[in-house]
Amino acid sequence: MFEKILIANRGEIALRIHRACHEMGIQTVAVHSTADADAMHVRLADESVCIGEPAPRASYLNAAAILSAAELTGATAIHPGYGFLSENANFAEMVEAHGFTFIGPTPEHIRVMGDKLAAKALMRDLGIPVVPGSEEAIEDIEVAMRTAEDIGYPVLVKAAHGGGGRGMRIATSPQEIRSAISIARAEAESHFKNGAVYLEKYLAKPRHIEIQILADTHGNVVHFGERDCSLQRRHQKLLEEAPSPALNADQRAEIGNLVSAGVANLGYRGVGTLEFLFEDGVFYFMEMNTRLQVEHPVTEMISGVDLVREQIRIASGAPLGYYQNDIHLQGHSIECRITAENAKTFTPSPGYIADYHAPGGLGVRIDSAIYAGYTVPPYYDSMIAKLIVHGRTRNEALMRLRRALDECVIDGIDTTIPLFQSLITDRDFVNGDYDIHWLERFVGLED
Ligand code: ADP
User: Please, are residues 29 and 70 in contact by the beta-carbon 8 Å criterion?
Assistant: First the structure.
């Protein structure tokens, strides 16, 4: 087992990884930008190294500085968390070329899944149903028009190397397709330095259902059922729950087993998430994320398995040590992503946190790196806390979430807590009756 792990991230996820390491008796090295010198992930780590200026490019994306920090401190493995370098195949390659262990899949798997068209082709070959659409990047507008006719309007133009909900445009008719392609292309080019786009059937009222898997280096694969991440704004998740109110046990077992078998065929290692759209009882694969997800805690709450600990064990070469039949999902869990934003306008609200009180009690978990007296810097993602609850039933989880939100005090900045407080009084949400477009109507945003 590793003695010292470098955590190449910041905020709540850096702390989350630190916690798993310390419970395993592993020392931690934090890296940080000059803006994060007082951050909790730095304060709690055993050692820390400043790796650059606030801009992510200069620090958290600075592979050379991160590798130097690992060298300097004698860390032998690097955990990338999510975001930043976590899905960068070149980084994973560099880590291994320098003799460190990358806590994640092989660079080859990261690379192929980072190309959504290649990932869809691979999954189709493995017998996993995919969203109907073009099989290659769009080169020629005439070909794109024919593909769109074949799959039927409306269609979605998507960035082949996209992420974070960017580089997506709907075309409802042939007249709109040309401009949708050029807008999506320009957005993809500016965000991902790769303008490749493709077409997909635009599903009108699907749910976003994703399956969590775990694979060791000895050929064992298990799944932990699904997370329902349909509550989204601008294609970004705000609240996730497990299990999904829309699936029954047979559907769960069927898609879970299909995914496990496919992943076993791939020879994949580590944690992974296969994202699907689910409409009228049918699953359509969208993409695979080759890293820990923000919403992984809801799966941990219903399974009792520490996914970060499992990532570290797998990276060290240990076998899973259990089978699918040993995994028992219990109760219901909900996560709210609390951001430093105005709950009505979503205007960013970084700044000084004058007072902070975290909710507690049975079945309540807070994953956060904020504290009273902390200043939320303006340079990074606006998420400041994940509030996760667990209950024996969905109703118990909802009641617990309501009282936990009421207990939470974050003074000095705007947060999205009021949005969640109104959400949990809504009848559709309470009934579990929502699709991926529901939340945008709820917050009055339709684009
Ligand atoms: P990203 O990698 O940018 O997050 P995804 O492919 O995961 O992109 O899609 C993000 C979200 O966009 C999905 O959760 C869903 O809400 C919406 N979406 C993606 N593809 C489709 C589609 N074919 N039809 C309808 N909505 C879609």
Answer: yes
Q: Whose CA is nearest to atom 11 of ligand 1?
A: 235
Q: How far apart are the first and last CA of the chain?
A: 50
**pLDDT tens string 116-140:** 999 999 999 999 999 999 999 999 9
Residue with tokens 């190294």: 49
The pLDDT tens digits of the residues spanning 161-193 come to: 988 888 899 999 999 999 999 999 999 999 999
- Which numeric CATH code is attached to 207-443? 3.30.470.20
* 146 classed as catalytic: no
The fold of the 132-201 domain, in CATH, is: Dna Ligase; domain 1 (3.30.1490)
The domain over range 4-85 is classified in CATH as 3.30.70.120: no
Atom of ligand 1 nearest to the CA of 131: 23
pTM of the complete model beyond 0.70: yes
Strand partners, 199: 157
What are the sequence ranges of the domains in the chain?
4-85, 132-201, 207-443
